[in-house]
Amino acid sequence: MHSADLSDLFGDNVASFPLNPPASEPEGNARHRYRTVWISDVHLGTRGCNADLLIDFLDHVDSETMYLVGDIIDGWRLKKKFYWPTTHNDIVWRIMKRARRGTRVVYIPGNHDEMFRQFTGLNFGGIEIRRAAFHDTADGRRLMVLHGDEFDAVMLSHRWLAFVGDHAYHLMMKCNHALNAVRRALGKPYWSLSKAAKHKVKNAVEFIGKYEEVVARAAGECGVDGVVCGHIHTAEFRTFLHDGRAIEYWNDGDWVEGCNALVEHHDGRMEILHWPDEIKRRRADEAATDASADAREAA
Ligand SMILES: [Mn+2]
Questions:
Q1: Measured in angstroms, how far is the CA atom of residue 290 from the centroid of ligand 1?
Q2: What is the mean pLDDT of residues 124-137?
Q3: H or E element: which one contains 56?
Q4: 47-56: per-residue pLDDT in tens?
Q5: Do the Cβ atoms of 43 and 78 come closer than 8 Å?
Q6: What's the CA gap between 145 and 128, in Å, rounded?
Q7: pLDDT, tens digit, 9 for 90 and up, residues 72-89
Q8: How far is the CA of 147 from the centre of ligand 1 (A)?
Q9: What is the pTM of this model?
Q10: Structurally, what CATH architecture does the domain formed by 16-153+225-298 represent?
Q11: Cα(181) to centroid of ligand 1, in Å?
């Protein structure tokens, strides 16, 4: 019975689940400690997940509270094709260890990991599973935390446009040239694919703007000061005026393309981290320290 449930979730590939113990966390790493960390849209179980960058993030950052704001595991994709490298195990392991070390970990499943929503209210290995949460910042703001697919029904008319990314746009621009060579050979007039694409990208930008407003207004209606969500893979901070009150909209981005996290400092100040930039800064600092040590040695 149990194995039937599992194969329903993972197809016929349960046997390929890695059984070797996860690589241990580097010891003595001084983690920068924040009051709160939010991450979402990790999409474990897909090739798109930037597991190495997320492991680096987890090895350098710690917090009193950590919110996992949905689409952490991609159950949709796993059902179709089993993909679970050891690095994805390492991430789950690190988060479990974090909970055991005393970080309050709140997991709010999204639409890609909605199978965990049935466990709302339960705790697994110290990880609280919630449908949504309220977070009080150090300076007394109350924020609503949810994944954000709750608004898909409202946004349905242009939902698909969210997936038209920059990359797809550039690819289309390239295709345009080839397409028109063929059209020319067939004696057909020039047709601008890129113009059509540009229109779609413009719509995607409009979609994101509209989504942010819809979510912020819903938070305003709930009487809170702001909202933290994920879902659309676009890290952003904006404020919207709703009934004369400023409502904060925070999106913590994703670990597929952006590799972003949202953090709250101990004074309540919040910041969106773009992790590749943080790594670049760290490397530069390390190089500077090495250089000054070399200079001292040479002197
Ligand atoms: Mn989602």
A1: 43
A2: 95
A3: helix 51-60
A4: 999 999 999 9
A5: no
A6: 14
A7: 999 988 988 899 999 999
A8: 7
A9: 0.80
A10: 4-Layer Sandwich (3.60)
A11: 39
